[in-house]
Specification:
Elements (H helix, E strand, L loop, with lengths): L1 H59 L12 H21 L10 H24 L10 H34 L3 H27 L1 H34 L11 H23 L6 H24 L10
Family: Belongs to the Ca(2+):cation antiporter (CaCA) (TC 2.A.19) family. Cation/calcium exchanger (CCX) subfamily.
Keywords: Antiport, Ion transport, Membrane, Potassium, Potassium transport, Sodium, Sodium transport, Transmembrane, Transmembrane helix, Transport
Subcellular location: Membrane
Length: about 300
């Protein structure tokens, strides 16, 4: 009996050693996998940081930020100094006859930007603290940050439009098609997802918010966005008027837009303001007809490719 017990004791010790070995080996494997994942994650973060830096750094150095979590006095001083200079550069580049030599007007514009940036930078250095953003003059900081964010949105939008136009000439696609598809879909994709989510999950109130947003967004873009753009263009080119190239496709687009608005005005009162497939089906049919007509026109009269490779 004693011998049997001793054998059992030896077996139990061997089993414990084997289990302990498996546990230690498993821990080593887990630690190795975690290390590989951490190194991979660090490499991905470093790659994303390198790709993001050329776009992030100019925005960070020209947009004043008065947030406690992101406050940095040196960056704040640099941002309020460089923001007027960036505005002067953009103002000077609006001229079609850009010359590398500094003319009187260009010198005046750049001088004003440098002077304003220097004044703002000195005031920011003297009136701000290292530990926290300004509290007494917080409104000018917020207004400046909002304005410079709008300026950067304008810069990015202008570059995207230029890129689309260049691709249209290279590939041979009509610019109107690019505007109706790539630019329009990309600009409205966020609103589409938001309005669809509200309509499906928000009940009657969600549907009301969704349909209000569907019409309020284009109204804002058309009235405020187009109005401000035309005011700026007319002010910059005064006394010459703003000339829009004659384009029959633009008139067709406006015609289909008016047809969609008339359809909504007729259907909603007749259906006692009840949203159903009649309104949606009619709007989709109008849009499908507009897109089909435009594609037929492009196929019939293709844009000649202006880029030739010799």
């Amino acid at each position: 009996m004693g011998t049997w017990i001793s054998k059992s004791g030896n077996k139990s010790k061997r089993i414990e050693k084997v289990e302990l070995g498996y546990v230690e080996e498993g821990n080593v494997k887990d630690d190795h996998e975690k290390g590989v994942c951490l190194r991979t994650s660090s490499s991905c973060k470093l790659l994303l940081w390198i790709l993001e830096m050329p776009l992030y750094l100019p925005r960070r150095l020209t947009i004043p930020i008065a947030c406690q979590e992101r406050w940095s006095k040196p960056i704040a001083v640099v941002s309020v100094t460089l923001a007027p200079i960036l505005l002067s550069i953009l103002w000077d580049l609006q001229d079609d006859n850009v010359n590398l030599s500094l003319t009187f007007n260009s010198g005046l514009v750049y001088g004003t930007g440098v002077f304003a940036g220097t004044v703002f930078g000195v005031l920011a250095y003297l009136k701000t603290e290292k530990s926290s953003p300004p509290k007494n003059c917080l409104l000018p900081w917020l207004a400046g940050g909002f304005f410079m964010s709008v300026v950067w949105s304008y810069i990015i939008a202008q570059e995207l439009v230029s890129l689309l136009i260049s691709l249209g000439y290279i590939i041979g696609i009509n610019q109107a098609i690019l505007g109706l598809t790539v630019l329009a879909w990309g600009n409205s994709l966020g609103d589409l997802i938001t309005n669809l989510t509200m309509a499906l999950n928000g009940g009657p109130h969600g549907a009301q918010v969704a349909i209000s947003g569907c019409y309020a967004g284009p109204i804002f873009n058309t009235l405020f966005g187009l109005g401000m753009s035309l005011i700026g263009s007319a002010w910059y080119g005064y006394p010459s008027p703003v000339e829009i190239p004659k384009d029959t496709h633009l008139l067709e687009t406006l015609g289909f837009l008016i047809a969609a608005l008339i359809w909504a005005l007729l259907v909603l009162p007749l259906r006692h303001m009840k949203l159903d497939g009649v309104l949606g089906g009619g709007l989709f049919l109008i849009y499908f007809t507009s897109m089909s007509l435009r594609f037929i026109q492009v196929v019939r009269d293709p844009l000649p490719n202006t880029v030739s490779i010799t």
